[in-house]
Amino acid sequence: MDKKYLKLFLDPIKKCKTYKPKLGTNDKNGVDLSGFKTLYGEDPFYAWIGLDSDLMYAAHKAAGGMTSVYRQIGVGCERLFRQIIIDTAKYEDPSFAEWSYMTKTSAGKDKKLSLDGRLEFSEIKDMDLKSRLDGWVVNYCNGLDVEKPSNGLVFEVRQGYKSKDSKRQNGDIDNASVAWAKGYLPVFSIFSSQIDGDIVTRYRNSRCGILVGIPSDNSEASLFAFCQQVLGYDLADFFKRNSDTIKTEITSILEALLSPQ
Fold first, then answer.
1. Strand, helix or coil at 34?
2. Sequence spans of domains, the chain
């Protein structure tokens, strides 16, 4: 199982190793060092002040590459968490781990919005999980002062939540409103412990569940405790067991991004 889960988590992140900045061009593959030297070297002002240097290119690559690393870690977290749901719930049809809905854009066009995971009460084949989940949902909903949802839980998975972007928060709360209307408790699952307390408060006040990657036995606060006590999979131990392998891969990616070559 570790081999499968590691692949799901690391495959998106490995793409960052070959990241190249676009530097304002339309090249979808990005600009390599040679292209950068030509682009900046032929710009009189940039050449005069020394911006056409290997170090400047490395800085551009590192700046954009860091954003890509965080984004792809998020993709890895989504894929890993969804597969854990599939395996622990013993879904006969893996598509039950996905959830989406249709909405309209301001221009009146159809738009599909998706969340990253779903626990559908009626499709869970593991009866022990079903029993644990039922008790957890009742307790959690009591804390939110809402009725138990009729259909299940849907999850929005994030690697971390460092931003206080109000547009993102409003979008999350819009998704949560639709989830409740469709009979689901929306739960935001944050792998990192780094999230502003004001955001946690706002989401809970909007009747959203939120689980954060903190070392705690409280399954209503800690994503790791929820995975272990409710899903029946020790996610924290997975990362501890495979920490050296993951660190080696991340170090290799960062070294590639910090080099001009």
1. helix
2. 2-258
